[in-house]
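User: Could you walk me through two proteins back to back? I'd like the raw sequence and the structure tokens for each, with a short line separating them so I can tell where one ends and the next begins.

Assistant: Of course. Protein one, sequence then structure:
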Amino acid sequence: MKVSREIKTAIIVLGGILLFIMGFTYLKSSPIFDSSHKYHVEFDNIGGLTVGTAVSINGFQVGRVNDIVFHPKKPGVLIVTISVDNGVPVSTSSVVELFEGSLLGGKSIQLILDHSNKELAKSRDTLKGRHKPGMTALLEQKLAPILTELEGTMSQANTMLSGVNEILDAEAKKNLQKSIAKLEGTMNDFSLSAAKLKGIMSKNENKLNGAIGNFEQITNDFADLSGNLAKSELDKTVAELQHTIGGLNTLLKKMEAGEGTLGKLMQDEKMYSNLTGASKELELLLEDLRINPKRYMHFSLFGKKQKPYDSQKVTAENNIQLK
């Protein structure tokens, strides 16, 4: 059976149209023989999400975005249809999260499974969707208050500078310049003084080293002296001194109590009076011996008979001598 040229042409055209449809659906991630499950998610703003964007779980791709349309009953709400590979346990409480996939602003979708819920979602069910702030959004949130504070600070700085310009008239600015010039001169003088001090220390480096060495030797001598004092049984000497002082205190207490000869002498007034009287009588006896030696000594070289002692005569003679 011969096939006419028209039929061949028709077959080729139909095959081309079929291949075109299959390629178009493949590019839209909606293959003809698709066994995956489809789920709907509602978003107020998709932030540039496009059809064909990958759907991932923990970074692993498990599906694609199939379609994006406006909700027929909710103005401004978008319905995103995603396809997930068969075999992924998508429960009814699973969440579809829209997040920023790159710093350039592209959006991506990840599926967060709830393994605690055993009730699996059916194809064409609507899952819960939410937005996850990306790095750009977080930077905007963090930088917004900082920029606000910076603007306020800059405004205050401008106000302060304006006030300073108003306070610093021509004369004040001139005086400020003079002060700065004097400060510069002072710093130059300080630099010169530091240079001179450095030169002096360089010239006398040997002397300074010798002085430091002497100081170190003195320190060592003091250390040796301290060691010698520690070895000289100073504690024993102090203990003996304390013992001696304790004995002296005991002796003084006994003397105050009237014990011993010195104690009795200090406490017994009668003995003190007797000693005073005896001393006085001894003094009188010595004085009488000096004045009247004849009364106590009888000496004759030629054996002359000694005259009897006449106390009245002696007393009269003594009175005459005293006068």
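----
Protein two, same layout:
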Amino acid sequence: MIPDNLKLTSKGFNYKIVYQIVFWIIAFLLLISMSYGKSNLSYAVITEAVNILFYLFIVYFNLYYLIPNYLHKEKYIIYIGSILLLSILITPIKLALLYILYSGMPDIQANIVLNRNLYFLVSFSIIAISTIWQIIIDWLKSESSRKELQTKNMQSELKFLKSQINPHFLFNTLNNLYALTLKKSDLAPEIVLKLSEIMRYMLFLRNELNYIQNYLDLEKLRQGQKVTINFTVKGNPDQLLVAPLIFTPFLENSFKHGLSNILDQGFVNIFLEIKDDNILFLIENSKTEKMPQKQHAISGGIGLVNVKQRLELIYPNQYELIIDNSPTVYSVTLKIKADKN
């Protein structure tokens, strides 16, 4: 009666059988201890040996034949009828065997006949208990499989989404870096240093903020004087963990689809506030009135749909995303309940 997902194996040895043997031995000893007061030890052992043999038969017949063929196939009426019929058939057989074993003891024989209905109820109850046990085990296995599948799906989705987080600015920066190396510019080593820091895997919020700062430094070099970039951090980012590159799509969006359409002066303002384990991230950028509003809303990085999907997977019920797309300013407000180290 030990479920498959709870069994232990060691070098090919199956402990499920051992556990079941131990279970039935304990049940046998308990039955003997309860019967010993009603008769002598030898008769108690004989009686409970008969009982345990019949219990073994009806339990395993139920678990390995009736439940798989009827209950699991949702043939509920046939299943209930089958366990009733099994109890009805097994009871007189057991009573007859006990009656023979107690020949020469008319008092016990009379008691067996008198309690025939009780024997039937006990047999039916044993079957019902084994059914309830199997239903619980099936539910636990189903929940385990469901959670395992859900975890695998989430991991697959995260890997898929993560694979799409390939910042567009990186390719532009590499092109600029190539051009600068051809010119033997003094800016080339600085760009290489910033890129090396950006490409490191990030998890601590402090690292994520360093990533943002490096990103903005590269954009300042690329954009020149036509863009004003402000980055403000309030609160202590230490000891907080965030998903890697969680803010990247919004950074990409601001520079690629907001400022790229502005010929004159533009701006990008970023504000990040930490209160306990709550993070408030606000980013806004200027945009031209001629630019279609929907274009900015759905473009950039891995796209707004995938951004929301990633947030839902990593921070279910622990984030709030607000987007304001006015004619001249595009802003994103993201609130996250982060994990502490």
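The beta strands are 9-10, 13-14, 227-234, 240-241, 266-275, 278-286, 319-325, 329-337, 339-340.

Let me know if you want the two compared in more detail.
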